[in-house]
Amino acid sequence: MQTQPEFLTLRRHLEQIIVGQSRLLDRLMIALLTGGHILLESPPGLAKTTAVKALANGVHAHFQRIQFTPDLMPADITGSDIFNPKTSAFRFLEGPLFHEIILADEINRAPPKVQSALLEAMEERQVTISGQSHALPELFIVMATQNPLEQSGTYPLPEAQLDRFLLHVVLDYPDEKEELQILDRDRRSHFGEDRDDLDTRLSPATVLTARREVAEVHIEEAVKRYVVSIVNATRNLGKWLPDWQDAIRFGASPRATLAMVRAASAHAYLQGREYVIPDDIIDVAGDVLRHRIIPSFNAKSKRLGSDDLIKGIMDAIPVP
Ligand SMILES: Nc1ncnc2c1ncn2[C@@H]1O[C@H](COP(=O)(O)OP(=O)(O)OP(=O)(O)O)[C@@H](O)[C@H]1O
Ligand SMILES: [Mg+2]
Fold first, then answer.
1. What is the CATH number of domain 217-316?
2. What gap in Å lies between CA 16 and CA 269, rounded to an integer?
3. Which of 39, 52, 182 maximizes ligand 1 atoms within 8 Å of its Cβ, making it the mutation to test the pocket?
4. Spelled out in words, what is the top-level CATH class assigned to the domain 4-174?
5. Ligand 1 pocket check for 143: Cβ under 6 Å
6. d(C-alpha 4, C-alpha 211), whole Å
7. 242-257 pLDDT tens trace
8. Which of 60, 121, 186, 220 could hold 201 in an S-S bridge, CB 3.0 to 4.6 Å?
């Protein structure tokens, strides 16, 4: 846990830029600490882009923002083979994905082909062009943002591919007190009083060391069983909640089980603990499962969404 104090410094840096939104800040830290990709969703103007940029600024890493638009092509993000007339040979020209921290901004505004090129890179950490694979950087992590699906001009991400995201975070509007602070902070920054006072950026080596430390956070058998019960309940809801027997069309995959333990380990690490407790699981479960379960039409007609179903499951399963 040697590296943990440096991450607390980074967290304080984020708090100086973003008012409130503490779940969001926690989740960004967890993503960085696990190498997991994160999807942030909210209506426009809730500081998604600002928060990701602040995080990237706190790490000494190659950062790239990719604005997803309806006319984007897969090669625009992956790169492509370019013919060099001098040597009469093709040479791979790396696209913007070949960076360490990627902000995939407004990911649901790009057509499905581009989304799937991104999601493939996320899963395999490599890009394949003309049968040749090109490895992405070791630190590679995608922080994607999207507006809610009802907004016009959006292409919903394919459900099966959402599974590639470790966490799916839905942001809430700030309360009135926080909104006043946002206003004050903005005015101060216009007068140049709010300089970026981050003097120590995290090095990529520190991030990689921290990821190893997080992977070593201990989890005991009873807590593992708890995770498995939660994920299993998304596939056998009737066992725990007979009234909701057919409320979930598709449950979560084993990837969710792994994701829950990884995210909970990072959560424990941020609390300075070398072992996972059930509270870590409870804290991350919603963001791990939200995008991995598909409510049935029946559930939707009763206005039951993923969050309601997850809450039902968490309430039903006994905490060890
Ligand atoms: N909690 C907050 N703390 C500090 N600033 C905030 C907060 N919420 C919003 N802002 C300010 O509001 C503005 C909009 O933020 P930003 O562009 O990051 O939103 P966004 O969520 O990315 O929006 P969009 O979905 O339209 O891309 C920025 O100037 C940002 O500083
Ligand atoms: Mg934005």
1. 1.10.8.80
2. 22
3. 182
4. alpha beta
5. no
6. 11
7. 989 899 998 999 999 9
8. 60
